[in-house]
Amino acid sequence: MHVMKVVERKSEIRGADIGNILIDAGRLTVADLNRIVALQGKEEILFGEAAVALGILSEEDVRWALSCQYSYPSVDTEDRALARELIAAHDPADPRVEALRCVRSGLMFTGAGKRIKTIAIVSADAEEGKTFVAANLAVVFAQLGLRTLLMDLNFRTPRVHSLFQMKNNTGASSLIIKRALFEKAVHKTTINALAVLPSGPKPPNPSELLSWQDSRELMATVKENFDVAIIDTPAFVKTADAMMIASLCDGTLITALKGKTKLAAMAQMKKQLEASSVRILGSVMNEMGKKK
Questions:
Q1: Which of 116, 133, 222, 240 fits a 20 to 30 Å CA distance from 141?
Q2: What is the model's pTM?
Q3: DSSP secondary structure string, 16-78?
């Protein structure tokens, strides 16, 4: 398996010359650097443009080096440990990621990362982009340096572990029934400041499990150990699970998929959340997989 290279917030990298970053990473030789600089001076173009024009670097190489220069976490595109669906990690410049940063900013204005530490991502029905939004939102929070946990409480159809190529034999369900230690169940990732808690083995009674005091204790432990936790949930209308999870969290973000989510179902979900005094932080209209 290819080992992912993640840009760390190292003071010796931040602000370094892009050419030296690429040389240190073994992606550029001194001879190539001189050729690039010569063309850059002759044509009065940017370093990256010259490097790509000469065929020495790819555009992805240039983006990677820029992310190093600005101390901005990114990953190697050849890495297969992270699913391509994690666009915030693979392509921080993607317009969809910029939209997610706007969502992050909006959440932070409401207190996310401070007073609001646990955020449930809910949608009325299945396959409306909850996991996509939850996972990428967790990445952009981590990119700020906040200690971030992506938590999968979708015990019915868990998917978070697959995005990070993790086993799902231990996780949240194991912690609720006291069959694992917190530090053993939470996985570090190669993205700085981001950890993942998979759902764990599928329990026979998800709704009941979520109503246990042990689930509240788990959320308290999460708050003690992380600045913010983004929590994936099952479809709201299918079971009582999502409502239970939302009631355990400090706030809830509603997602809807353009062209699929029914307005009536979304309105009913909102009504139920409000009736249960769940704090709704906002909503996201998702166009999952569509690159503008």
A1: 240
A2: 0.78
A3: --HHHHHHHTTS--HHHHHHHHHHHHHHT--HHHHHHHTTSS-HHHHHHHHHHHTT---B-TT
